[in-house]
């Protein structure tokens, strides 16, 4: 690998060329750090006292996130993943064998995510697919099928509809609606007149393929149905799903013909033999079974040999070969079996650990395989006894592949939710910080991107490049607004002014140029130096600019006068990064001489220079937390050091090595609680700071035994608690002092719920089926109900106060709260229901299902309250499910599980939105804040944590309990949390502001709260809004 150079006045080598050659030669001189704007964009509510109270609580939590204190690394950094961002979910081969229809989507599948429908011209002789058209989808397409004449494509997905499309263009001609859940599978009848569908609600239905009219509902699996297929003669429909059963339906008689039992887990693979006499099924249990379609009897059963789960099956056109693929450890094999005997003929490694799509072409000579990372491959299957040869492979997406380039620049969006990255290819990627999903890309530079900055309002992104240009991008449209040309060589640094009106750029030519950030017009030039400028920083008030580079000197500029104010010499190597501290009273710099320095300023004069203990190797990147509390620096060996910005020359740094090779870029999130790092190992990692801890405002210890729940009344004045001692206690919500004790239960009290108006409290005992409705004002019993049955695990009251739901064993019962009579019992789950919650509009009921004793995967269920029918089963937890809660807008359900995760589910599509690793194998109760921005979670070791829903990370830890948390609840105004524990205590947490001692300990984190603490207002505000 060669590199040409030319000499410079400083006697340094200047590489020419592009790509990794230039990168390796020039990287020590490249500025690779960009700072996002400060601020949270918190809402400014006006009007109702409750709205103001919610905002005050959010202000406080945002303050805790603001990053003024030291950045204390919380565990190992997490790689910002991207390879698993998408998958080929389904493939259809046109009847003439000349086209492929490919469905791609997110992992796990959901409404919003990368993917859509891609149409390929398919050369069967060479096996090469050529993209004809890509159709992006915002509705989560899941399945696809060609009509027998090849003129129509049918697609179905999470929008609870089927689209009938022109097969050539992909344009929608007709939409079929009326499904009770997302469409997982579909198939055309052999004559093309009918379409069969399998849905998340478990139903198998028939529709007219021409007009989309409903023909019949054949029946239901009772749990989500995944697959459906017509027999070759059209007389039968086969379906399979979560209930571990495949079913054969008589199309003419509209009835079930056979129930094919034998699999021990979900059945997803499904294929009729070409003669229609056999049906093959593949299960998550790793087994393949074949069935006689006439009698429904099992013909054979054999292990898929390393394919588990079996997700896709297909017969060769001559019926002699059955191919299977699915999941695997690192690379799932595809297996070819003799269709009659089940003997394995050959196998091949697909290169993907999850294969969801598998199809023979019409002649049986080619196998089309689709899997993770948008991989779409074509294999030669002409010799079934020999391992197939891969003929072609394409990546079924327009999105770039993560991990294939060295990242040189990073920047967070002002809301902290998106991370922009640029590197050696010149492409800029935008990724969701929570799940790593690519949300956009900006293409236009002809060489490596060296620096990135995002405007304070989040609307624009600026980038600098080896190609000699800077560019301004509109982030809403993804288009370049302006190309900034003026430097005579590579552009190495750039920075937005604090108000976003100006942009400064620095280049290898030694010049500093100022630009109008709106128009892209050049405004002025500062002389800079004779050698490259590699770092720039605006002062917080925007009046000064600091610059530095290869001449080892920091310069301060007056931007109004366009004059140099001062020079700060001292470094012994080129300076790589600069950052002003709060109020511009000091400046930090990082250099190739291995040191970070702090320059304390008195106006424009240097008051003191502090040289921190050095790295062992030269520094390539530096970032300052937004509050100015922490300096992070990264070096050539891959170490990231964290040091207190206000330290002395003897202050030790905390050092972590997480990159193989040098650290190339660092950037703090606007809140200062997350650091992004990039390195030569082509990885981007996110470092999270340990969340602040808050002590409880009040504690009650008067129950005997475990306290199972604590509920804040709707008016915020009372807390109700229930415990092993069979007592229900009503307490003052400010002090937790008892107001009234309600006695009447014959055993411990395990669950409770207030009516919406707070006049009634419903509680359930731990033994038997005992439920009591209490008059809160008098403490008298309004009524008892429940009767015989297993112990009740959870109760909930509907939003209109008319209905009570109780969970007991495997059933949920709905009761009329006026008459105390049962309305209906909802059955379905095969394991106990542990928790139930009504949706905000009262039409749906969510339940947590699972049995902790057996270690099996649990699920969250959603039922229709009016009909009692299951609307969705939310699968994905690896262990039992403990608790559920609806978000205030009813669009999301949160669930906790023994697998150590909290998962957020989209209600309309029944798909996973996000999953939080909570760092505890036993998260139990969960509640959304009234505005839906926070989750409170109770943990197995006595910790209560607040989670930022949007960011997917812990915001605050609430410490005080000594054992398992059994109950948590938010007040209606969002200002307080109550928690109960196995340790026998009840604790009240006040989010309006910490105690004065806490405020002093976290001085500067939240100015509003701190001021209140200093003046005593935090204590005096006990009777503010919400009381």
UniProtKB/TrEMBL annotation:
UniProt superkingdom: Bacteria
A Pfam family hit: WD40
WD repeat positions: 176-217, 218-259, 260-301, 442-483, 484-525, 526-567, 568-609, 656-687, 742-784, 874-915, 926-957, 958-992
Family annotation (InterPro entries): Quinoprotein_ADH-like_sf (IPR011047), WD40/YVTN_repeat-like_dom_sf (IPR015943), WD40_PAC1 (IPR020472), WD40_repeat_CS (IPR019775), WD40_repeat_dom_sf (IPR036322), WD40_rpt (IPR001680)
Key words of the record: Repeat, WD repeat
Gene3D superfamilies reported in the protein's UniProt record: YVTN repeat-like/Quinoprotein amine dehydrogenase (2.130.10.10)
Protein name: Translocation protein TolB
Organism: Tautonia plasticadhaerens
């Amino acid at each position: 690998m060669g590199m040409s150079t030319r000499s410079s006045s400083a006697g340094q080598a200047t590489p020419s060329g592009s790509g990794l050659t230039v990168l390796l030669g020039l990287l020590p001189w490249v500025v690779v750090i960009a700072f996002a704007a400060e601020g949270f964009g918190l809402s400014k509510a006006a009007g109702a006292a409750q709205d103001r109270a919610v905002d005050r609580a959010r202000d406080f939590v945002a303050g805790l996130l603001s990053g003024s204190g030291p950045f204390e690394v919380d565990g190992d950094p997490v790689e910002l993943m991207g390879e698993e961002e998408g998958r080929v979910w389904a493939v259809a081969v046109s009847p003439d064998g000349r086209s492929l229809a490919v469905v791609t989507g997110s992992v796990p599948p959901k409404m919003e995510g990368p993917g859509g429908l891609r149409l390929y011209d398919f050369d069967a002789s060479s096996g090469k697919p050529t993209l004809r058209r890509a159709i992006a989808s915002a509705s989560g397409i899941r399945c696809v099928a060609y009509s027998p004449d090849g003129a129509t494509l049918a697609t179905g997905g999470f929008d609870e509809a089927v689209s009938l499309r022109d097969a050539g263009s992909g344009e929608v001609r007709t939409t079929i609606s009326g499904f009770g859940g997302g469409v997982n599978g579909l198939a055309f009848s052999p004559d093309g007149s009918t379409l069969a569908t399998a849905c998340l609600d478990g139903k198998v239905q028939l529709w007219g393929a021409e007009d989309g009219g409903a023909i019949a509902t054949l029946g239901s699996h009772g749990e989500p149905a995944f697959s459906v297929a017509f027999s070759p003669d059209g007389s039968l429909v086969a379906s399979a799903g979560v209930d571990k059963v495949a079913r054969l339906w008589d199309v003419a008689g509209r009835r079930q013909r056979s129930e094919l039992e034998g699999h021990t887990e979900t059945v997803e693979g499904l294929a009729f033999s070409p003669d229609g006499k056999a049906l093959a099924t593949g299960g998550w249990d790793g087994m393949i079974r074949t069935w006689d379609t006439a009698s429904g009897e099992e013909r054979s059963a054999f292990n898929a040999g390393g394919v588990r789960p079996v997700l896709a099956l297909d017969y060769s056109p001559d019926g002699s070969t059955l191919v299977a693929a699915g999941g695997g450890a690192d690379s799932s094999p595809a297996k070819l079996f003799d269709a009659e005997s089940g003997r394995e003929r050959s196998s091949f490694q697909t290169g993907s650990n999850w294969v969801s799509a598998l199809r023979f072409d019409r002649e049986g000579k080619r196998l089309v395989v689709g899997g993770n990372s948008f991989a779409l491959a074509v294999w030669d299957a002409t010799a079934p006894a020999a391992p197939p040869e891969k003929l072609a492979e394409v990546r079924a997406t327009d999105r770039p592949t993560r991990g294939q380039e060295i990242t040189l620049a990073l920047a967070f969006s002002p809301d902290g939710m998106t991370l922009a990255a640029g590197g050696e290819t010149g492409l800029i990627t935008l990724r969701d910080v929570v799940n790593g999903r690519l949300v956009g890309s900006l293409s236009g530079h002809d060489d490596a991107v060296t620096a990135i900055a995002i405007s304070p309002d989040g609307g624009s992104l600026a980038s600098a490049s080896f190609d000699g240009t800077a560019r301004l991008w509109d982030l809403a449209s993804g288009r370049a607004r302006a190309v900034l040309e003026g430097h005579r060589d590579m552009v190495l640094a750039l920075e937005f002014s604090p108000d976003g009106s100006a942009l400064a750029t620095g280049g290898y030519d030694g010049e500093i140029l100022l630009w109008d950030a709106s128009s892209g017009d050049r405004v002025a030039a500062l002389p800079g130096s004779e050698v490259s400028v590699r770092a720039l920083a605006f002062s917080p008030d925007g009046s000064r600019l600091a610059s530095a580079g290869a001449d080892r000197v920091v310069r301060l500029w007056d931007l109004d006068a366009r004059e140099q104010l001062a020079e700060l010499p001292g470094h012994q190597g080129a300076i790589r990064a600069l950052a002003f501290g709060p109020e511009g009273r000091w400046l930090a710099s990082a250099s190739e001489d291995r040191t970070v320095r702090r320059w304390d300023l008195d106006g424009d004069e240097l008051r003191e220079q502090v040289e921190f203990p050095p790295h062992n190797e030269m520094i390539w990147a530096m970032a300052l937390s937004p509050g100015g509390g922490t300096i992070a620096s990264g070096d050539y060996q891959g170490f990231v050091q964290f040091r207190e910005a206000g330290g002395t020359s003897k202050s030790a740094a905390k050092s972590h090595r997480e990159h193989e090779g040098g650290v190339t870029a660092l950037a703090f999130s606007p809140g200062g609680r997350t650091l992004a790092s990039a390195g030569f190992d082509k990885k981007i990692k996110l470092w999270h700071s340990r969340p602040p801890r808050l002590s409880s405002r009040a504690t009650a210890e008067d129950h005997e035994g475990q306290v199972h729940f604590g509920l804040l009344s709707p008016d915020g004045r009372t807390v109700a608690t229930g415990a092993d001692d069979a007592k229900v206690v009503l307490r003052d919500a400010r002090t937790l002092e008892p107001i009234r004790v309600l006695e009447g239960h014959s055993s411990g009290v395990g669950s409770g719920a207030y009516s919406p108006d707070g006049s009634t409290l419903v509680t359930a005992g731990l033994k038997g089926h005992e439920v009591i409705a209490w008059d809160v004002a008098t403490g008298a019993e309004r009524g008892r109900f429940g009767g015989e049955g297993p112990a009740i695990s959870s109760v909930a009251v509907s939003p209109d106060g008319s209905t009570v739901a109780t969970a007991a064993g495997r059933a949920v019962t709905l009761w009329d709260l006026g008459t105390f009579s049962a309305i209906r019992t909802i059955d379905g789950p095969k394991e106990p229901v542990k928790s139930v919650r009504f949706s905000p509009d009262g039409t749906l009921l969510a339940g947590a299902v699972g049995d902790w004793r057996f270690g099996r995967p649990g699920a969250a269920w959603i039922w229709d309250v009016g009909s009692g029918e299951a609307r969705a089963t939310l699968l994905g937890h690896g262990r039992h499910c403990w608790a559920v809660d609806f978000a205030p807008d009813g669009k999301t359900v949160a669930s906790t599980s023994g697998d150590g995760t909290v998962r957020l589910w989209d209600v309309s599509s029944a798909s996973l939105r996000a999953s939080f690793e909570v760092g505890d194998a036993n998260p139990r109760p969960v509640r959304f804040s009234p505005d839906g921005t926070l989750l409170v979670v109770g943990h197995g070791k006595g910790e209560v944590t607040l989670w930022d829903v949007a960011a997917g990370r812990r915001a605050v830890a609430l410490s005080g309990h000594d054992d398992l948390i059994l109950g948590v609840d938010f007040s209606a105004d969002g200002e307080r949390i109550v928690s109960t524990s196995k340790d026998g205590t009840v604790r009240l947490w006040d989010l309006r502001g910490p105690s004065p001692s806490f405020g002093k300990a976290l001085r500067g984190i939240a100015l509003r709260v701190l001021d209140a603490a200093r003046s005593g207002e935090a204590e005096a505000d006990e009777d503010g809004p919400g009381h």
